[in-house]
Amino acid sequence: MRMYGCPMNRLFKRSSNENQPVIIVSGLPRSGTSMVMKMLEAGGIPPLTDHIRTADDDNPEGYYEFERAKKLKEGDVTWLPEAQGKAVKVIGALLVELPPDYEYRVLFMRRRMDEVLASQDKMLERRGEDKKVADDAMAVLFQKHIKQVEAWMEEQSNLRYMVVDYNAMLEDPRPQIRQINRFLGGELNEAAMEAVVDPNLYRQRYVRSKAR
User: Fold this and answer.
1) CA 157, CA 102: separation in Å to the nearest integer?
2) What is the pLDDT of residues 27-50, one digit of tens each?
3) pLDDT higher for 60 or 70?
4) What is the Cα–Cα distance from 125 to 204, expressed in whole angstroms?
5) Is the entire prediction scored with pTM above 0.90?
6) What torsion do the CA atoms of 186, 187, 192, 194 make, to the nearest 10 degrees?
7) C-alpha triplet 160, 162, 166: angle, nearest 5°
8) Which DSSP state fits 126?
9) Cα dist. 141→122, 136, 159, 206 in Å?
10) Measured CA distances, 113 to 30, 34, 156, 207 (Å)
11) Structure confidence at residue 57 (pLDDT)
């Protein structure tokens, strides 16, 4: 787990969200972003979500998405004041569209690439959709994307980020949760966050590597 620019001050003043950082959960698809959103909610950070995308077999606990966050590239940023002091999911490709007017704390999810690809394949299968890009080619694209996003985040003076290892979280959540709590100011309910971690939802583990 890597942590960049860990703030020593407390981020969240319960009396007001004004001028508080926007907490962003990001990463590749199927990398555990929804789980971390639910953990943050349990820990005491309200999520910014519209509940338009509901739970299904691929995400039984819900997606915690906010549709307007997907329109950053189109210039829709008027919702950001509402996001201060809250957690919102933003895909990695759209992080570069965040305006510099706000402070951001990003939890960037990492998961074994073979598991990400296997989980995506399973989702497409459930939806009856064909895979458009071979897994090996997709893995190369994803790795390139991760490097580009992390390089960009390191250059932003108004953004600090922390890499969260999904696989390590499922194996031993306490150290991961402790680091997240420290990164976000130290006022989260760690026990409530840990209760959210459900190993039964850890599907597609090492599926591709076992098949080789």
Assistant:
1) 11
2) 998 889 999 999 999 999 999 998
3) 70
4) 13
5) no
6) -10
7) 155
8) H
9) 19, 9, 24, 20
10) 10, 17, 26, 11
11) 59
The per-residue pLDDT for range 142-189, each reduced to its tens digit, is 999 999 999 999 999 999 999 999 999 999 999 999 999 999 999 999
Terminal CA-CA length for the chain: 28
CATH topology of domain 22-211: Rossmann fold (3.40.50)
Q: Tell me, what DSSP letter sits at residue 19?
A: T
In eight-state DSSP terms, residue 6 is -
Handedness of CA 42, 36, 55, 89 (dihedral sign): positive
CA separation for the pair 92, 190 (Å, rounded): 26
Helix and strand numbers, DSSP H then E, in the chain: 8, 4
Question: Distance of alpha carbon 175 from its chain centroid, rounded?
Answer: 18
Q: Where are the alpha helices (DSSP H) in the chain?
A: 33-43, 80-83, 113-127, 135-154, 166-171, 173-183, 190-196, 207-211
Q: Give the integer Cα–Cα distance in Å for 92 and 113.
A: 15
Q: For the chain, give percent helix, strand, coil, nearest 5.
A: 45, 10, 45
Q: Around Cβ 151, how many Cβ atoms within 10 Å? A: 9
